[in-house]
Write a structure and sequence with these properties.
Layout (H helix, E strand, L loop, with lengths): L6 E5 L3 H11 L4 E5 L2 H10 L4 E5 L1 E2 L2 E2 H9 L6 E6 L4 H9 L4 E4 L4 H31 L2 H5 L6 H10 L6 E5 L5 H10 L8 E5 L5 H9 L16 H4 L4 E5 L6 H13 L1 E2 L8 E2 L3 E6 L3 H6 L5 H7 L2 E5 L9 H15 L11 H7 L5 H15 L44 H15 L4 H8 L3 H10 L11
Parallel strand pairs: 1-2, 1-3, 3-6, 6-7, 8-13, 8-14, 9-10, 10-13
Antiparallel strand pairs: 4-5, 11-12
Length: 470
Amino acid sequence: MTHDLATILIVDDEKHTRDGLRLSLEDDFDVYVAADMAQAMEVLKNEQVDVMLTDLRLGADDGMKVLESALKLPKPPVCIMMTAYGSVDTAVEAMRRGAYHFVTKPLNLDEVDLLIKRALRSRKLESENVALKKQVERKYSVQGILGQAEVMKPILATIEQVAPTRATVLIEGESGTGKELVARAIHHLSGRPKEKLVIVHCAALSPQLLESELFGHEKGSFTGATEKRVGRFELADGGTLVLDEIGEIDASTQVKLLRALGEQTIERVGSAKPIKVDVRVVAATNKDLAKMVEEGKFREDLYWRLRVVTLHMPPLRDRRSDIPVLTEHFLKDVAEANGKAFKPLGEDAMPAMMAYDWPGNVRELRSAIELGVVMSNSNRVMLKHLPAYLSGGGFGAPRVASNGQSATAPVNMLPKDLNLEAMERRFIEEALQRTGNNRTEAAELLGISRRTMQRKLAEMGMLVRKPVDL
């Protein structure tokens, strides 16, 4: 079999039809012929046939049986039916049973050639769609992205149960625990996975900009509104809207959001015209919203509207058994994203990773793996390729000990004399070092907004100018 040509099987009990088709097609395709069902099945079992043309009448055999048998194979061919007794009813029946198309005799060879090429394009698209679907399923596999620790089982079960519904979901947990991944998984497993998924990072915008971002605005509604703008609710119509860091929104926006959730209706800034939207909302926060309600910082009615279903993501330190699972997932994912060959983790790395507390949670783990994949110049990702603090060097310390050997003594916590402010400073310094002093990237690495990063830098005297209100 010539593997660079598509393979065609012609099944017909008339010899001159078989030979005529073979002569017509063999310059462009790898052609096999069969006179009956037995010969056809022999070819189908032993060769990977791309397209099968079969007559509906095969002497004592029935072409429909050949069609049905072919379509039951693990890799079925695209099937085109041929008959001299063509009728609409026969064509519909053949298509209903899985045939790609139907042609009548006497055959127009140019038409057959064109039909085969269309069938091959269809087969290629089908194959690509299957591959893409598997890739998407792997990317958004709930267990793949979140792990399998005992503490995660009820969370995974809840995700799979609520995802197909329209229920609003509130995801709580520390920064970096995978809240956005959960939101994406909920969308992917919902009844609207092909619709838009729109994500808004609420803390990154000032109150006025956030209101405009969510609900849109009319031209001239405020200074700088030079044209009409469609908001994220409208963009997400029919799909899912993820509101990350929902605890950062101001009181005025909370009122508008409450109405949008309750009535599925919004109004653009500068307009009183209601706009109907069909949006499934998933909110995420690293704050204690219940406490904020008690303190009067968050509307109680909005809180209850958001938390129809609540998921609390545990920190990685409370589910250490997931570290190997997540590490394997990130090693493959990062290697693929960077166009590198997959490299397993070295034996010296996992003990240190299991001992470390991962204050940045899953996001920090992925960042560490990404660094390891990029820095590794061997066939494995070793401890020396990972962040220095995993090998006991502390933040910003060299990766190699003073004697020239890689430092391998794992630590499970930071020095006891560090207070919270000192820990935050070290985290920020390390993040800035690893991102070349890019504040936006450093903020993303730490799982905080750029505005929060600016404020922290100002509080610590690491920023000369005042923090910018974004």
